[in-house]
Amino acid sequence: MHILVLHGPNLNLLGIREPGIYGSLTLAQINELLDHEAAQLGVALKIFQSNHEGELVTAIQQALGTFDGILMNPAAYTHTSIALRDAVSAVGLPLVEVHLSNIYRREPFRHHSYLSGVAVGQVAGFGGNSYRLGLWALVDHLRTAQ
Ligand code: DQA
Fold it and tell me: Does 33 reside within a domain?
């Protein structure tokens, strides 16, 4: 089973970026957690971060035929991107949306996600563990659905 992990804009700054909200783990450390979890689950990961919406759209399009599912933290594009939502709908791959912070306890503009309506589900508020929980949930969904 092959899973594509996508990190959206500014997540490359984790560790120094608002640690009171996002925690002190760097993106490299989160990716290590994910690799460890993937090994436990027996799945292969490809991990990609971009600050550019179009690059993320292209990565989702190219996932078709190569990956079984997508784990994504769309970051700020969560709240703005119809293009990312349409890409997910277009390829039809199961998506689990993750957020480090609980977006529903934050500013009102973060309460709406364009992605959640096309996602299998969402994990938010558990810091780096949101990714591990999200990967577990995606793999469980894929294994149960097949
Ligand atoms: C985030 C929440 C978003 O609102 C924010 O724009 C991010 C990170 C999170 O992981 O908590 O960049 O997706």
Answer: no
27-41 vs 129-145: helix crossing angle, rounded to 10? 30
Report how many domains make up the chain: 1
Q: What is the CATH number of the domain that holds 3?
A: 3.40.50.9100
**C-beta separation of 94 from 127 below 8 A:** no
Does residue 97 surpass a pLDDT of 80?
yes
d(CA 15, CA 2): 28
In a domain, 78, yes or no: no
> d(Cα 20, Cα 1) in Å, to the nearest integer?
35
pLDDT digits (tens, 9 = 90+) for 116-125: 999 999 999 9
Cβ of residue 103 lying under 6 Å from some atom of ligand 1: yes
pLDDT attached to residue 145? 77
pLDDT at 146 over 90: no
Asked, for residue 142, whether it belongs to a domain, the answer is: no
User: What's the gap in Å between 90 CA and the centre of ligand 1?
Assistant: 24
Catalytic residue (choose from 7, 77, 99, 131):
99
Which entry of 22, 77, 114, 131 is annotated as an active-site residue? 22
Is 48 a domain residue? yes
